[in-house]
Specification:
By secondary structure, the chain is mainly α. It has helices at 5-16, 19-26, 83-93, 100-123, 125-132, 137-168, 171-190, 204-221, 224-234, 241-269, 272-285, 288-298, 305-317, 323-330, 332-367, 376-405, 411-433, 440-466, 474-490, 493-502, 510-528, 532-545; strands at 29-30, 39-40, 53-56, 61-65, 71-76. Helix 2 (19-26) packs across helix 18 (440-466). The radius of gyration is 25 Å and the shape is globular.
Length: 547
Amino acid sequence: MAASAGEADVEGENMMDTPAGAAAANSGGLPSRDGGEGIEMESINLHASDALESVPSASGEATQLVPDGSMLSTGKNKSLAISAGDALEEDLMLQPPTSLKNLIISSVFGNMLEWYDFGVFASFSTEISKAFFTGGRLEELLEVYGVFAVAFFARPVGGFLLGLIGDRYARTLSLQISVVAMGISALIISILPTNSVGSYAIGPTATVLIVIVRVVQGLSVGGEMVGSMLYMVENVPPKWKLTVSCVPMASAIAGTGTGYLISAIITGSLSEEQRLLWGWRLAFALGVPAGAVGFMFRTCLSESHSFSSAIKKFRHRHQNQHPFFYALKMEPLALVVLSLLSMVVCGYYAATIWYNQAWLEEFYTELIGPTLGLTELQGRILNTFLIYFGLAGGSMVTAVIIDTRGSKVPLFYYIAVSGSFLVILTPVFLWLMSFGNRCYACVIGGQLGGMLFFLPTIAPLALFLVSQFPVQLQYTSIALSYNVGQACFGGTMPYVATSMTFSDKLPLIAPSYYVSFLAMLGVASVLLGRLQRVRKLVEDLGFTMNS
C-alpha cells in the first residue's frame, strides 16, 4: 500500500540524515520543493547550441530554461536529451579515478600535519612562553595560549578563501595550497629568533614574528580539514562513506597525539635548558617532511565525478556565478540559518576536542597545584596514549560500528545522545582528575571517560555536516561554519579554561561547566535542525542550487 504524502516526507527527511541518505544527497539526488520525486542530477542534460535545459518546476512539471533565464513549461516528466549532454557526461567519466590508497594517504598526512603543529605548540607551551614572553608564570601561560588562539581566529578567513577556490575551481587545488603553506609555516617557526632566550634573542620583535607566522598558519589550515573531508566523501563507495569520512577527523586527532608523542620523547631525552633552547624547534622541524609527502600524494588526486558534474552544470546555468554568492542572493535565510546551526555544532566539537587533548594535561600536571600534579613527562605520556587509542582509534572503531550496525539511525541522533551525556558527566570527570597523584586511576578514568562519551559525536560529524548543504556549497559553507566554531570555542578553550581555574571566585572544576554548557548548545543545535521549518530551508536551498 502506498504511503501517505506526510509519511513519505518524514521518511525522506529521516533518510537524509542516515549515512546512506547523506551519501545519496552528496552524489546529487535532492528532494524537490513539493516533496515529490527527487531531482536526479545525472538526468539533467545540456543543449550545446541554445543552452536549453529541462528541470522540474515547483509544481512538478518539467520546464526549459532558455538563455534569457525565462522558463517554458514542457509537460511533466519530459526531459531534453541530446548528444552534447552525453558528451559532457562521457568527458567527466573519463577523468582518471583517484586510488583509495592515494586518497587516504593524502588525507592522513595533510590532517596530521595540521594538528601536529597545534599539538606541538600546546605541548611545548611552557618552553614557548619562556622563549617569547616575559612576566610571571601565569601571565606567560595566558600569553602563549593567546598566540595559540590567534591561529584559530585566522582560520575562518583561510577557510573562506580556500573554500571559494575549492567550490569554484577544484578541491584538489585548495588541498595542495593548504598543505604547502602549512609545511612552510612549520619550518619558519622552527627557525624563529626568541625574545630573551639564547644568543639569537632579538627582543619583542620575536613575539610579533611568531604571531604573524601563527596567523599565516591559521590561514593555511582553514580549508585543510573540510577539503579533505569533502574529498573523502565524494570519492568512496556509499557503504563506507561514514567510516572513510571519519579518517580526516581521526588523522587530525592522531596528529595532535603525534605532537605530544614527540614532545614526550624530547622531554625525556633533553634537559630543561636544552628543551628551552632548541628542543621545541626540533619538534616543529620534524613536521615539515609530512607536508612534503602530503603534497606529493595530492598532486596525484583527481576531482570526483559528482563535484565536477554538479559544478559544470551550475556554471552553465548561472553564467559562471560563484555558487556561494548565488545562494546568498537567492536563499539568504536558508544559507545563514544552516551555517549558524552548523557553526554551533562545530563549536561544541572544537571546544570539547581541545579541552580533552590539549588542556586536560595542563590541568592535572600543573593547574591543580605543585604537590598534586603529575610530572610533566607522566602527563605527556598519558595524554599521548589516550589521544591515540581513546580519541583517534576510538573514533574509527565507532565509525565502523555505525556503518555496519547502525546505518539506519539518523546521524543527528548520535551527536545529540553523546552531547547529552557530556552535559551531565563532564564535571564528574574533571572532579576525578583533580585528585592528581593521589589517585592515578582517577586521572586516567576521568580523561578516558570523557573521550569515550565524545566518540559518537566525532565519528558521524563529517558526514552530518556534508548532508546539510548542496554539493556546490559544501566547501565554502562548511569551512566557514567549522572554522568560526574553532575560532570562537576551540582556539580559546585553553585560555578560557586556564583563566577560570585561577579565578578565586570559581571552583577548580569550573571549566567543566563551560564545556557542559557548550555541549548543551550543540545538542540544541542538532535538534533545532530537525524542525520542519529548518528542513524546508534545506530543501529550498538544494532545489535552488540544482535547478
